[in-house]
Amino acid sequence: MPTTRKLLLAAAIVLANQQLVLAQSADVAPEEAVREAPVIEGIEEIVTVGRYIPDEKRATAAVANLLDATALEVAGDSNIADGLKRVTGLNLSEGKFIYVRGLNERYSSAMVNGATLPSPEPITRAVPIDLFPTNVIDSVLVQKTFSATFPAEFAGGMIQMRTKVVPDEPFFELSSTIGYDDITSFKDGLTYDGGSRDWMGVDKGTRDLSEPLKNAIAGDRELRENNFIYKNGFSGAELEAIGESLPAVYTANPEEISPDVGISANFGTVRELGDFSVGLLSSLSYSNSWDSLTASRNLYASTNGGVEALDLQTFRSTQQNVDSSMFWNAGVEYQKAHGINLTVLQIQKTDDQAGITNGLRGTESQIINQTRLEWVEQNLISTQLQGNHD
């Protein structure tokens, strides 16, 4: 077997060479081995710098989740609501409201830079988290159990957002959305002649109260007609005069409804001045959406002759929702450890509704035709001046 002999011979030669190398290495002194080691040129000095970074989640004794700017950036989330919906124990409602552990807004709160953020909604405490883009947020702490460090009204869940003092690098983002509703979009809805700024959600004075109406409701007096139960009302002629004093724009007319639209812009800039960093962050958003509703209300009564219809009514309404927000943050940072920043947040929410009720009322089948107009405008402004020192 010539091939086998050649392989054995080669293995023996390799083994002998390894033993020779080991013998030569044993003969060389450690100092000589160090001197013979190759010298890597181009590296003159290596400096290792360590910085203490507090771990807030580890330090707290409460049940909490922490999302920093890196986690939000890796996930590609555009706003805080998208990032928080992946956190265990949180529910996202309507794409903008966050509920902790299934509890409603009564047990949840939101804070920005340590200050409680009030809700722009008139009848709820929930704060729309989608108003905060991820580019302006440094970290988000979600605490799911009570802690004495937060306001006493906090009982179930706390969402604490911290804004950046200065951006990491300049950026600019522009996005737009368009929505279609098969019940509302491009179909006839109800609108009325308002002001020229209604598309912004701001009344120009069209809906101001007339002087007769202001005088009538002074002292919390109700606009009701005198009867045997309510003695502090008005006569029919007085109510008619008050109604005639109102602007002649309170008439709902059918009009084709446009699709939902939205636009947002986020930008930031930073400039290095030695050990100082000066930056500006801003976020602007606007959305205009429509909803239509058609409902029937039928009321029947049982009589000796059978079932008799009392009310046969149809209600039809169209509501326009205009939401806009503005966020500004100007800050100065020194050596990444000390900073001061001014934050301004403004939220504008407007609901404009026009509705018509048609049908029959009462046993005498009275024909009714009522128009209902509702304008609710809410404005929230929050200003903060904050400093931090590490």
Low-confidence stretches: 1-26
Strand order of the largest sheet: 8-11-12-13-14-15
**Which bin fits the share of residues in helices?**
10-25%
Main sheet makeup: 6 strands, antiparallel
Name the beta content range.
Answer: 35-45%
Anisotropy-based shape? elongated
Which structural class do the helices and strands define? alpha+beta
Order of helices and strands: HHHEHHEEEEEEEEHHEEEEEE
Based on CA atoms alone, the radius of gyration comes out at: 35 Å
Task: Kindly describe this structure.
The chain contains seven helices and 15 strands. With 390 residues, the protein is an alpha+beta fold. The strands form four sheets. Strands 8-11-12-13-14-15 form a six-stranded antiparallel β-sheet, with no helix packed on it. A five-stranded mixed β-sheet has the order 1-6-7-4-5. It has a two-stranded antiparallel sheet with strand order 2-3. It is elongated. Mean pLDDT is 80; it is low at 1-26.
Compact description:
The protein is 16% helix and 44% strand. By secondary structure, it is an alpha+beta fold. The protein has a six-stranded antiparallel beta sheet with strand order 8-11-12-13-14-15, with no helix packed on it. It has a five-stranded mixed beta sheet with strand order 1-6-7-4-5.
Distinctive features:
alpha+beta; six-stranded antiparallel β-sheet; five-stranded mixed β-sheet; 7 helices; disordered N terminus
Q: Would you spell out the secondary-structure blueprint of this structure?
A:
Elements: H1 2-27, H2 30-36, H3 56-59, E1 64-68, H4 69-75, H5 80-84, E2 90-93, E3 97-100, E4 108-112, E5 115-116, E6 137-143, E7 157-163, E8 171-179, E9 188-191, H6 211-216, H7 236-244, E10 253-256, E11 260-273, E12 276-303, E13 306-334, E14 338-361, E15 366-389
